[in-house]
TrEMBL record:
Membrane topology recorded in Swiss-Prot or TrEMBL: Multi-pass membrane protein
Keyword Transmembrane: yes
The organism of origin for this protein: Meira miltonrushii
InterPro entries for the chain: MFS, MFS_trans_sf
Protein name: MFS general substrate transporter
Places the protein is found: Membrane
Superkingdom to which the source organism belongs: Eukaryota
A Pfam family the protein falls into: MFS_1
Length: 525
């Protein structure tokens, strides 16, 4: 590909400049003529594949967050101090990120289906062990191993969504993913509180094992492989280099019309996979051992792209506030003047669950509609930065929710005020996380696997740090801690404003390295 005519990553003609209907949306990427191309799957088959991803996320996500509402009871029953329990969460998130340096290359080389199934088996084993942990060191080691096994939940699901759905569809399905991921994290503590009071803390982990086992059986029977080798020419043609030129746009649209018409009318080639072929754990046709080291170091190297680093940092910041809420919920609500039992602490997670539901609608369905509207206003051109306007909601919600939760607890306001604060914080965390993911994937879709791993490395490294920092930070007092957190959260969130103006320039400067990476990639994800 000539280096002087490389398209800017992420900028593409998505709709006709005057288009008013869904039929005028441009397909990106253009599907191949292979009958096994996931983009060619029927609507029902795509929805089943997405359901498998949802079930994996729900079962795996809930299994590692069951303890949030019963941290104080676990401290009393096992003698493991709260600081160690919170530190264990930090190690869990650290390995959720860095474990991807192993799981992500394996998934891209040998297939995602096998990695998902092994992940669930390992998660079940860690939960069984978790029920009998009795020392500080053992708790930390357990969380490290658990994080390693379930690391695909943090980056592989988004990559699989990109395998199945077109650019204009991904926002909605990643919004659903964010809802399930964050929702499971709030639903699990809600149920765990009641389970603890009825049967003790060990039964909480046994409940997690049962949930994961059901998910494992379902995914084993119905989850399909979504890896597909896509031609580099097909990928680059979906992008537009000179999107500022109306004449160039018209020419591109005419060319795209012909290609899309051909994509719809073409006779499909190949033989559909049989059931037993779909049941394989791994597929050797993706195995290119010579590129394994590249797949390991490239996600770290991609952090030099400002868009990717900023997305990871932004996502990490939103996750920090989510971790702060979980680390302090049991501590605040189990203490005077609230004196909630574990079941009541768990029940307060119903509020954040509602907040996450609203976030899924806002960042998913509404976000897609907003993006299409912005593209039409921009002559049909979709820029990834268009999605960043949705972060205006977080500019208001992040600081206000942190103050309502922390300062409200310090002033001993009614517990309903705390639930509202937690709900707003959960909503903003889910919105911010979904938008950060979508922005990075919209910008560098053709390296989605490596991009997601890069983002999670930054995000979870920040989460690891807060796992250690939260307990000393709370020594400042609830009011001082959360006032400072509110200002830090506001300062980080508004960094999206410079990205609105400079994001495209950053993407343009990275185009040579990006397309070089795509051309040498193991497969197009």
């Amino acid at each position: 590909m000539p280096t002087d005519n490389l398209p800017t990553p992420g900028s593409l003609v998505l709709v006709d400049g005057k288009g008013e209907s869904e039929t005028e949306i441009r397909l990106s990427p253009i599907p191949s003529n292979d009958v096994n191309d996931p983009l060619r799957w029927s609507w029902k088959r795509k929805q089943l594949a997405h359901l498998c991803l949802v079930i994996y996320t729900l079962c795996t996500g809930s299994s590692c967050t069951l303890v949030y509402s019963i941290l104080i009871p676990i401290e009393k029953d096992t003698g493991i101090p709260l600081s160690t329990l919170n530190a264990g969460t930090g190690y869990l998130f650290l390995l959720l990120g860095w474990g991807g340096l192993f799981s992500q290359p394996m998934a891209l080389m040998f297939g995602k289906r096998g990695v998902y199934l092994v992940s669930m088996v390992g998660g079940i084993a860690c939960l069984a062990w978790n029920a009998y942990v009795s020392s500080k060191g053992e708790w930390i080691v357990n969380k490290i191993i658990q994080g390693f096994f379930i690391s695909p939940i943090e980056m592989l699901v988004e990559t699989s969504i990109g395998d199945i759905f077109y650019a204009h569809e991904r926002g909605f399905y990643i919004g659903v993913y964010a809802f399930v991921l964050f929702g499971s994290n709030y639903f699990a503590p809600l149920v765990a509180g009641f389970m603890y009071e009825a049967h003790g803390y060990r039964f909480v982990f046994f409940m997690g094992i049962m949930i994961q086992f059901v998910g494992l059986v379902f995914c084993f029977l119905f989850m399909e492989e979504t890896n597909f080798v896509r031609n580099i020419t097909e990928l680059s043609e979906a992008h537009d280099d000179d999107v500022s030129s109306p004449a160039k746009n018209a020419q591109n649209r005419s060319s795209m019309d012909e290609k899309e018409a051909h994509a719809e009318a073409v006779e499909l080639k190949g033989t559909p996979l049989r059931f037993m072929e779909k049941m394989k754990f791994f597929n050797k046709k993706y195995a290119k051992t010579s590129q394994l080291i590249t797949l390991v170091y490239r996600p770290i190297w991609l952090l030099r792209f400002p868009v990717i680093f900023w997305s990871g940092f932004q996502y990490g910041a939103f996750l920090i506030w989510y971790n702060v809420l979980n680390a302090t919920a049991s501590l605040i609500l189990s203490s005077p003047p609230y004196n909630f039992k574990a079941s009541m602490v768990g029940l307060t997670y119903a509020g954040p669950l509602v907040g996450v539901s609203l976030a899924a609608f806002y960042s998913g369905w509404f976000g897609n509609k907003f993006l299409l509207w912005k593209a039409k206003k921009s002559g049909g051109v979709r820029e990834p930065e268009h999605r960043l306007w949705l972060l205006l909601l977080c500019v208001v919600f992040v600081p206000s929710s942190l103050i309502l939760w922390g300062v409200g607890a310090a002033r001993q306001i009614h517990w309903i005020g705390l639930v509202v604060g937690g709900s707003l914080l959960a909503c903003s965390s889910a919105v911010g996380g979904a938008i950060a993911i979508n922005y990075a994937l919209d910008s560098y879709k053709d390296l989605s696997g490596e991009v997601m791993l890069s983002i999670i490395l930054v995000r979870n490294s920040l989460s690891f740090g807060i796992g250690y920092a939260i307990t000393p930070w709370l020594h400042l007092g609830l009011q001082n801690t959360f006032v400072s957190a509110a200002f830090v959260g506001l300062a980080i969130t508004i960094t999206f404003i410079p990205m609105l103006f400079f994001g495209k320039r950053f993407r343009h400067f990275s185009r040579k390295s990006y397309w070089k990476y795509v051309e040498s990639s193991t497969l197009s994800h």
